[in-house]
Design a protein that fits this description.
Strand content: under 5%
Helix content: over 70%
Number of strands: 0
Shape: globular
Mean pLDDT: 87
Largest sheet: none
């Protein structure tokens, strides 16, 4: 009983630290939307706490039902910390090994976002369009996922200096 409490508490800490960090980051970015500011130390510490707790889940409880969640929180935390190689590694692990995860499609998009940040542009648009077609076929109405998809495409078009398509994708993201 004690072990299961420690195990769940460790996972809960990873999730809670990540969610608290995201809340701080969102609040900071809304206050400083015109400035390119760095993350606060509080947000960074929470992200590192999430990574640490997730690592404990992976090391001590590798067969748990929360392994894909732990990998997801690690990947998202690394992405938020601009550690894109580590984010890519974790998103790739989730996509390759946990196709039935609730984070699967989102992780596929974040993987492509990691590639964009790493300036690996050659296959991003093809992969994102493939994901988009699969989401359209499944009649997905997950607005957060669609926002991420169109925002990613918009950022891709900005990176490739196709501003007309970027504008169209950002409009779709807002819808």
């Amino acid at each position: 009983f004690f072990n299961s409490c420690v195990y769940f508490n460790t996972f809960y800490n990873a999730k809670n630290s990540f969610n608290n960090a995201v809340e701080i980051i969102d609040n900071e970015s809304s206050k400083n939307y015109q400035q390119n500011t760095t993350l606060s130390n509080t947000a960074k510490n929470l992200l590192y706490e999430s990574i640490s707790s997730s690592n404990i889940v992976l090391e001590k409880y590798p067969d748990s039902k929360y392994v894909d969640d732990a990998i997801y929180y690690m990947a998202r935390s690394y992405f938020s910390l601009s550690e894109f190689y580590k984010a890519e590694k974790n998103f790739k692990q989730l996509v390759e090994n946990y196709s039935d995860s609730k984070y699967y499609n989102e992780s596929r998009l974040w993987l492509e976002y990691s590639h964009l940040k790493l300036n690996i542009l050659d296959s991003i648009l093809v992969n994102v369009n493939s994901i988009q077609n699969e989401l359209d076929l499944s009649n997905n109405d997950n607005y957060q996922l669609l926002f991420l998809l169109h925002n990613l495409k918009g950022d891709f078009f900005v990176q490739t200096k196709d501003f007309e398509n970027a504008f169209l994708e950002f409009e779709k993201a807002l819808e």
